[in-house]
Structure formats: structure tokens, C-alpha cells
Design goal:
By secondary structure, the chain is of the alpha+beta class. It has five helices and four strands, in the order E-E-E-H-H-H-H-H-E.
């Protein structure tokens, strides 16, 4: 049904000076009938090693749970997910190994993140760049250039 928007795909570029740098991560936001009163569910489609992302890709961040407000919008959700790459929250870890390594052995954590990023997230640059160039050519704002309906 093309009259409903229930799934949004977007790309998040790994932030500079983090172990995710150089990666292009595809995320999926699932909107149910309760949106915007209920938050979207967020998932990393690109495999990632992160304390707040489950093996299935589910993202755990308060903005998508108890801190949700209907006026936040999709742009805010994507910004929050990008911020999670800069500042993970090991205290609410869905990936216990990543949370433990982040707290106890940062170098091992960063090495594993870089390994996953190099293995799974560097190939996304082609799709990310193509989408960015397509949207730029159409004079669409940078914020919406990163959003892509599926």
C-alpha cells in the first residue's frame, strides 16, 4: 500500500574520531499505527558491534522508549541514533559483551568495533553517496537527503 508510510530506511555515516569512522550504517525505523503518539522502533540493518544494539539490530535508546514525545520527529530520532555512536550507554546494554568491553577494556572494544565497521559498514558508501548525490541534484535539504522511503 503506497498510501501509508510504515518503514523508513536511512543512512548514518560513522562519526569522525570514533571507532565507527569510515562506516556507512543503514538503519530502519518501523512506524506502527500509533505513531507519532508511540515511538518508532529502530534497527540497524548494517551489522554493528555496539552496546545498545542487539544481535538482531534492535536499537535501545531512551528517545525510542520512555523519553519519547510525539513532536520529536524522525530527524531527531536519526540524530539520537548517530549520537549513540559517539556516546554509547553501556549501562543499558543489549549487547552485554560490547557493554562490558566498553567499560573494562576500551581498546579491545574499539578494535572490535573497527573490525565490524570494516567488515560490514564500508560497502554502504556506494549507496549512501548515490542517494546523497541524487538528493543534492534535486536541491533537497541535507537532512532529508539521508532519509529514504522503502
Amino acid at each position: 500500500n503506497f498510501n501509508t508510510l510504515d518503514e523508513i530506511h536511512a543512512w548514518i555515516k560513522g562519526p569522525e574520531r570514533t571507532p565507527f569512522e569510515g562506516g556507512y550504517f543503514k538503519v530502519k525505523l518501523m512506524l506502527d499505527d500509533g505513531f507519532p503518539q508511540k515511538p518508532p522502533k529502530g534497527y540497524f540493518v548494517t551489522k554493528i558491534f555496539h552496546p545498545n544494539v542487539s544481535a538482531a539490530g534492535e536499537i535501545c535508546v531512551n528517545t525510542l522508549k520512555k523519553d519519547w514525545k510525539p513532536n520529536l520527529g524522525i530527524g531527531h530520532v536519526l540524530l539520537t541514533i548517530k549520537c549513540l555512536l559517539i556516546a554509547p550507554n553501556p549501562e543499558s546494554a543489549l549487547n552485554e559483551e560490547a557493554g562490558r568491553l566498553l567499560l573494562e577494556q576500551y581498546d579491545d572494544y574499539a578494535n572490535k568495533v573497527r573490525f565490524y565497521t570494516n567488515l560490514h559498514a564500508t560497502l554502504g558508501i556506494k549507496e549512501y553517496t548515490a542517494l546523497y548525490e541524487e538528493r543534492s541534484a534535486a536541491n533537497v535539504s541535507i537532512d532529508s537527503a539521508l532519509l529514504k522511503e522503502n
